[in-house]
Structure formats: structure tokens, C-alpha cells
């Protein structure tokens, strides 16, 4: 099988990074549990929203992301059995291309550059499974769509859902 795996909020914890930067900038202490069903920028006061939207443009933002729990060990196993491709709409943030490539080299060295698709629209992807946290990416995919749970999508319905990489392991292995 050919399996596409998104990066942000599936293997890389972008949401946590927004939270960490925000807490540092504004010395507040709200957590992921306060963000249920919303984009992070929607959870902060209006006067802070621009600052949050600028995070992804900061040099180093995508290089410093933490790895989502269990994603490395499960993907390593899955990639021995299936054709695994990382598929990230990285062109939204052109500065992220090198950072994402370096990040994958460090944390997912078993996925070679030939299996990394840093792209724009994902509807051009043709394969069997797409794992993504964005319903608009899953909506246009012809194969099996799996929504990976992130604070912003907890209220999204109509998709097969995985709450963790251990659940992905159960589904795919
Ligand atoms: Mg994503």
C-alpha cells in the first residue's frame, strides 16, 4: 500500500510550539485543554492573534518542533511493510522547506528524500491512505482518509479518526 503522512500536527507538534511561544511571549499559562475544537490563534485575545499567526514565519519554527508521541517507532514499522511518503503542504511557508528536510533527517532518517513530498495542494496525491489532521485535505483524497486528532479538529465528524500513533499501528499493522 501507498500511505501518505502529513507532518504538522501528525508527526510534528506544531500546536504545542504555538502554545510554548505564546506562553513565553505573553507570560500566560493556558494549555491545550483550553483550545478544544479551535485553531490556536482563535483561542487567544484578539490583540494577540497577529503575533500567533506570525509564529510560522519565524526562522527555526519548523526545525524546533517536538515529535508527536510514538510516531517514530510506529512509522518505522509501517515503512517496512508499506510505501510510506511524508506529504506536507510546506509551500505555504517557503522558509519551512529546508527546516522540514533537516527535521526529517534528524527524527525520521528511515524515510529517505525520495519519499518526502513537500507540496501545495494535496489533492494531486494518488494512493491508498492519507493520514492528516485537516479535513480539507482528506476530503479530496480518493483513498482511505484517516483524521489524526489535534486540538483544533476534536469536533470534526465524518472521518475515520486516530487519536494516537498506537491507534494507527493497530489500523495498519
Ligand atoms: Mg497538518
Automatic annotation (TrEMBL):
<protein>
    <submittedName>
        <fullName>5'(3')-deoxyribonucleotidase</fullName>
    </submittedName>
</protein>
<comment type="similarity">
    <text>Belongs to the 5'(3')-deoxyribonucleotidase family.</text>
</comment>
<dbReference type="InterPro" id="IPR010708">
    <property type="entry name" value="5'(3')-deoxyribonucleotidase"/>
</dbReference>
<dbReference type="InterPro" id="IPR036412">
    <property type="entry name" value="HAD-like_sf"/>
</dbReference>
<dbReference type="InterPro" id="IPR023214">
    <property type="entry name" value="HAD_sf"/>
</dbReference>
<dbReference type="Pfam" id="PF06941">
    <property type="entry name" value="NT5C"/>
</dbReference>
